[in-house]
Amino acid sequence: MAGINILQIRKIITRNKQSEYIFTIIGLLSMLIGIITLLALIFDLISDGLPRLSWQFLTSFPGRKAEEAGILSAWVGTLLVMLVTALTAIPIGIASGIYLEEYAQKNWLSDLIEINVTNLAGVPSIIYGLLALGVFVYGFNLGQSILTAGFTLALLVLPVVIVATREALRAIPNSIREAAYASGASKWQMIWDHVLPYSAGTILTGIIVALARAIGETAPLITIGALTFIAFLPDPPIIGQFPYISFSWLLAPFTVLPIQMFDWVSRPQEDFQVNAAAAGVVLIAMTLAMNAVAIYFRYRLRKTIKW
Question: Which one, 30, 35, 41, 100, has the greatest CB density within 10 A?
Fold first, then answer.
């Protein structure tokens, strides 16, 4: 009987190993299909748009002639909108995640808030555009401005930052909190000096994902009235007169690279299609640069923690 049981156990183990091997192969093939498809699309985009890239293309405003049109107002607008988005969503999202995870009482209200925050992360982006149109454009009279666009995208990515922050804090062992309390630290000192440094890498990963989503959004910005043709730049944030800092650029009209690409793709001329591909290459480069900065800071933080 013992020999039969051992034989059956070996068969079960062999069958499980075969199933695991098949699942591994299927997962690997699925990943390769996605990666190869993405690389093919990026290669096609670069091969179409790279010949159009030039200093003149980066420093010229959009125009009626494709060979003379550029993306100056679009990439400047993208940078300014993303600046407002980051300055709004990151501190509010991290602070909200800290409160919900470390301070809020565990009851039905906090559970309800958690469910709603998680659900908001999957809401279509155009819903945020309609909300911003009613609240920021007409409610607060901010108009179709850079500030409105930044607030709109901040609302869009705020649930992602909150969820990422909560998951990062939740992954920290309670022994670290108990050790901080044992050394006489207050609750805020425990969070600021111990929990946040250990969770900063994961939080930055969530921020990278959130900002990467925001930089490519078009629907909510079109909803709030982003322009497809702008032949001027906003006022500079630094001026030559006291107080030397100006915030008038926040209320300036704007356009961004995804909207400029949408406008060019909708035109029948072949040259404008090439311009859209070139703008797509610039958008990918800006996204990679933004992610590279965040990854560098994440690496430095993790290296500091190891020491």
Answer: 100
Is 268 strand, coil or helix? coil
What pTM was estimated for this model as a whole?
0.83
User: Which helix (H) or strand (E) covers residue 283, if one does?
Assistant: helix 270-306
Tell whether 181 and 298 lie within a shared domain.
yes
- 113 and 168 together in one domain: yes
Does residue 245 contact residue 280 with C-beta atoms inside 8 Å?
no
Residue among 95, 94, 92 at smallest CA distance from 84:
92
Q: What digits encode the pLDDT tens for the residues 56-88?
A: 888 888 888 878 888 888 888 899 999 999 999
Domain hosting 17: range is: 2-50
Better pLDDT: 107 or 190: 190
Distance CA 244, CA 271 (A): 42
| Tally of domains within the chain | 2
Residues 61 and 44 reside in one and the same domain: no
